Amino acid sequence: MSVETIINYFSDLTEKQQKQFSLLEGLYKDWNQKINVVSRKDIEELYLRHVLHSLGIAKIQQFKPGSSVLDVGTGGGFPGIPLAILFPETHFTLVDSIGKKIKVVEEVVHGLGLTNVTAVNSRVEEIKKQFDFIVSRAVAVMPTFTYWVKGKIKKESVHERRNGILYLKGGDLSEELARYKTAEIYDLPDYFEEDFFETKKVVYLPLKYKG
Fold first, then answer.
1. Domain ranges across the chain
2. Residue 171: CB partners within 8 Å, gap ≥ 6?
3. Cβ-based neighbour number of residue 11 at 10 Å
């Protein structure tokens, strides 16, 4: 898969955004040779397994200018960096407890010229700010994740959808989400046709979740 697929799925990208997306592969291949943060198989399919997967969140929620998003356990910068390219007027804080991963994030952000990203080498529990939305890619089961991010979601919403968690997950989630009566599950095959997304989902959990 090439950057063209991203452009096809998100047809209103500016020239600058198209260029930033096209730069991703080279930046990640370069930095991955120095600091391994993405597996060899995944780096060859970066646009499918990382970039487009991250942008699944954007099919569910458009972030407004001036809003703030926290990416927990960002790893090499997913889903935060692709979302930051797509929403240049939204501020993204990308946090990971592993310093070398944040180093790669900082270098990729610099290489792309992104000014709406803050990278933080920290445990999420130590982040003191509050955000409109919290995003992540399956870094923990939902009960653990909600414990980590407790108190970090703003109560006042600027979007039509209530502030909360947007979580990229896969497989059968019925047991894991059984206690969360307000959870909404969106199947990514409804938005993307590639086989990779067959079992992939976005879970939305509003602020006042039961758990």
1. 3-206
2. 199
3. 6
Phi, psi of 107, deg, nearest 5: -70, -40
Residues 6+ apart with CB under 8 A from 116: 84, 87, 88, 89, 90, 91, 92
Half-sphere exposure of 145 (CA within 13 A, CB side): 27
Q: State phi, psi for 154 to the nearest 5 degrees.
A: -60, 145
d(CA 171, CA 152): 27
Q: CB burial class (10 A; 0-12, 13-18, 19+) of residue 17?
A: middle
Q: Is the CB of residue 143 less than 8 Å from the CB of residue 178? A: no
* Tens-binned pLDDT, residue by residue, of the chain (211 aa): 788 899 999 999 999 999 999 999 999 989 888 877 777 777 788 999 999 999 999 999 999 999 999 999 999 999 999 999 999 999 999 999 999 999 999 999 999 999 999 999 999 999 999 999 999 998 888 889 999 999 999 999 999 999 999 999 998 888 889 889 899 999 999 999 999 999 999 999 997 654 4
Looking at domain 3-206, does it have CATH number 3.40.50.720?
A: no
**Cβ(158)–Cβ(183) under 8 Å?**
no
